[in-house]
Specification:
heterotrimer, A alpha+beta (499), B mainly alpha (314), C mainly alpha (286), A: alpha+beta, C: 286 residues, mainly alpha, elongated
Amino acid sequence: MKKWLFLIWIGLTFILSSTITQAQQKPVYGGSLTIAQGVEPPGLDPTTNPSAAIPRVIYSNVMEGLVKIDRDGKVVPALAQYQISKDGKEYTFSLKKGVKFHDGKSLTSEEVKFTFDRLMDPKTGIVHPEYYKDIESIQIIDPYTLKIRLKNVNARFLFNLARPDSIIIHSQVADKLKTAPVGTGPFRFVEWVRGDRIVLEKFGDYHRKGLPYLDKVTFKFIGDPSAQIASLRAGDIDVIGYDVSPENALLLEKDPRFKVYNGYTTTEVILSTNNSRKPFDDVRVRRAMAYAIDREALIKGAMSGYGTPIGSHMDPGNPYYIDLTKIYPYNPEKAKQLLSEAGYPNGFEAVIKLPERFAYARRTGEIIADMLSKVGIRLKIELVEWGQWIDRIFKNADYDLTVIGHAEPFDIDIYANPKYYFRYDNPKFQETLKKAEAEIHPKIRKELYATLQRMIAEDAVNGFLFVLPSLPVMKKEVMNWWKDYPMTCQDVSEVWIQK
Amino acid sequence: MTAYLLKRSLTLLITLILVSIVIFAVLMVLPGDPAQIILGIHATPESLQNLRRQLGLNQPILTQYLNYMRGFFTGDLGHSITYEVSVISLILQRLQVTIPLTILSILFAIFLSIPSGIYASLHRNRPGDYGVMILSQIGLAVPAFWAGILLILLFAVTLHWFPAGGFQSWQSHPMGALKSLLLPALSLGFVRAAVLARMTRSSMLEVLGEDFIRTARSKGLPRRRVVYKHAFRNAIIPVITLIGLQTGDLLAGAIIIENVFHLPGVGRLVFEAIGQRDLPVIQGVVLLIATMIVVVNFLVDLAYRYLDPRIRYE
Amino acid sequence: MNKLFSPFIIHRPFRNINFTLGFLITITLLFTAILSLIYTPYDPNRMNLSKRFLPPNAEHWLGTDQYGRDILSRVMRGAVNSIVVGLVAVSIGMGFGVFLGSLAAFYRKWVDEIIMRISDVLYGFPAVLSAILITSIFGPGIINSMMAIGIFNIPIFARLTRATSLSIWERDYVTAARAIGRRNTGIIWKYILPNILSALIVQGTVQFAIAILAEAGLSYLGLGTQPPHPSWGRMLNEAQTFMGISPYLAIFPGCAIALTVLGLNLLGDGLRDMMDPKLSRIQIRI
């Protein structure tokens, strides 16, 4: 018996160590990488334009912030170490020494102050002023130290500093941000051929010693998914980082030349429910729906099996994430029973409005309609075009049910807004969120966020379904690409190509 | 003639103005706020207001219309909201796909239809005629987009001879670009050919039955010569007219076919622009298509009158 | 009775091969549609996620789709959808078109001019583009796409009605009827409409086919019939996504469209041959 266990143990270590050695193979320097990107960025300034195409090119590659999100979704130092004062309102940043911008200028506190002054200047017209609204003052202590003081405790402040919006720039190059950005990243901007590609090259003076491995990185703009795949097959590109459909991923996975990562993103796909409408104002009805949805079958049917189930509004990459998928196991009988208790022994009729533009939402909605019909909830499907979805559903909450993915990382605070289109008004949740955001102690804060997740899960505010898979597809030789996407970017600083 | 031309040109202008007003009105009632669509669901009220101002969406409707028409006549159709480039450059870029596609499909249609139409007319009620007529019935019945899907299934998915869709730019891969237009042009051209073959056949039959053909034959002219010099020349007039009148159909067909093959043409542009509420692009493309159709119809009309002296000027 | 007024006195219609074939196909289509309302092998909308992408087999004759639904049942039920769209679109087009065309032929002058100019604009504009615009204002859906297709049938019937009835107004018996003081509406009902009826029926058959094609196109673009209701065009759209996994999905709905349109076109050709060989029909537009 013991022998057996031993053998299994040996076997396991062997498998584990082989996967580890594969990941830890010695990186090779040199080579050039071409990444297909669906949307061409409308300018390269992520602070004044919300397009996700911008950070996907420049964030962590050309431009960096004080802190960043690592592969596991944790906030880690990038250009600076940080310390937070006891009252949680004062952040002291000690800048890394020897950091150079691509134009040769060294990074000092001046540049950081300039960056935040610019972000807080209403004339700059940034997309998300709310990220910086709590800043009271920025004070330079010495060339490598500065203090940011907040008006009130904001637990999400550090996370906001890790967003592409908070990239550090210096004053001489601020006006070039849109067209030819100059940053501190591992790659230097070379050229942008409009309508075709953006080229970056290795920056020799990069502050993380030994990085990057690649000599050249090209972002090639190919608007169409099938054309992207054709180019990958033809060998013109090496990686498709975003937006590969599950069907195509399935086909490419079978091709020995390519590999596909089934990682997670920050996009929670949920069955949004109008909590102010009958019969969805009854928690028993919402719970019945939760019991009636078989997440595994749903992911198989709608996403060809790609995707990670969730039980609340938090992606598994978030440090505060807790697994709540077991609260409502698939149980149609229980669902019917709850419906009877709520006064709908024969079920009821409702409308589910699905955004036509997103295949994942459409398919998820169709399958949910079928699953709910098995417990007596008859849904009429209406496909609405994206403009109408935003107008009628998101802005005016004119809907019963819908399916949509919430892409913003760490956005559980939307449940504290009773006017948000879920129309979920729970004063206890709102209080707890305030407490969590103002909490300094990391452990208590973590518990508070866990409580929040549990609260909306127990209330079954929405149907919590799955997070969208990342599905980057690349040639076998491309190593060290990020499997999960906890932040909107395609960080290639550690990527290398096997010879 | 001059009076007629003047009258027609005036109607042309009025039609175009009417069309522009209708399009503008339609877009005004399109639900959905472009600013909100750009910023998505995480937008704040301030950022929305900023963007609306940038886009000029807070001006009165009449001002917007007049500004727009002023731009239209000076070749400025505004800026695309999603792509942030001028609409004209966007359309010109997309026309690089749609125009070759249209021309290619017309060529396919002509090469398929006119010889077979003539052949059928000369072999009336014989097996060859029936063969052509059966094929053309099938051509009329098969939707172009399904023909496209079947071609993809055969040539791309099974045989891997052609890409399943997408487009490589003319500048970097001229042959690749041409190759990616072949299947879509074929699927559009096949349907078009069915109509043209029938038209050619019936027009030929009509002409062949006329007196001057019989006279030419009885004068002892060789059959080939009569068919190609006399009959065909006359029979082709209505066929050419039909080709011209089909511009609208072709553009409409292109919208669907460009979606089937994921071609970045004008049709796909407008289809996507509607989804993204990119008003300047929708206006620009629809107005452009309408203008093209009205102008082409006008030219066809003139050409028809020029070619066929039997038609009087009103 | 005069020659044009002949649809009801066709002798031995089945000697015409076009008519016979077209009639058979159309009847089969109608039968399938009616049958599918009472019986289909499986519930056309019921999913079975453990039976996805089955190729044709003994249980599912035409296989199953990405949700494990039975394709045969969906193709059968799709016939209802196509027939309803065709009927409504042609009725809208014929109703308004005949009315406007009669007005134009009767009043001539500026009434004629205005009606014909508007119909020119409508006629020249690609129906698909307008349908896309209409559905993006009123929302996609079967009703709106029927309306959109119907509207673009109006100028076709208006032109046809005007062209055919103009000459009938000149005929002796109409002049005579006017001379003895018959009211104009009476004349239209008694003399004009019966005489243009055969032309309208032929054109109606053809427009029916075109409406089915147009609906398939709109549904393919996602603007027509809404899920889960089966529509041939929409089935093709979804089939294209999964073509690499299951090519069967792309075959059968397309066959159904092509066969239906073929049947209607043949029927129209046959009717035209029998009623009046010289009757010209307005060219096919898709």
